[in-house]
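Sanity check

After download, print the first record. It should look like this:
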Amino acid sequence: MTASPELGNARTASPDLLRSVFRQHAAGVAVITAAGDRPVGFTATSLNSVAAEPPLISFGVGISSSSWPVVAEAEHIGVHILGEHQQELAATFARSGADRFGPSTYWRSGPEGVPVLDGVLAWLVCRVVARIPAGDHRIVIAQAVVGDPAGSGRPLVYHQGRFTALRD
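Expected structure tokens:
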């Protein structure tokens, strides 16, 4: 039997509390991309499988994000599952003001013109079906159109505020 959490340590909900709680939650790392006048992308740890039929995914994006104006209008987006060898790529797409599609990022224009990153474990191009307001974010729901799950390696994980790898 495990001990119950200490209720005496409970704190009133706040942005800091939410961040502290979710530092305890290990999450897979993805990069979301979209094509506009220029390609945009960002690192996401909020990626979820929503339904198998039809094949739907969701992710959150901050409305203050530099990528949001393009994602807000995009008909299609790219979803890329990163491998443990791609910590620097994850950091580049997470860094504000970074040249995310510069010389160190290998990518090509994929189906529907969506930027597709090279060397990822898996990728999807999805058609956006909904953008749902959620505080200072939007939850994007998209239906998979085409993809490739055939990359090799182990997934990149985000835990305790840093990128890391799974351990056996």
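If your output differs, re-run the checksum step. Summary of this record's structure: The chain has a mean pLDDT of 94.
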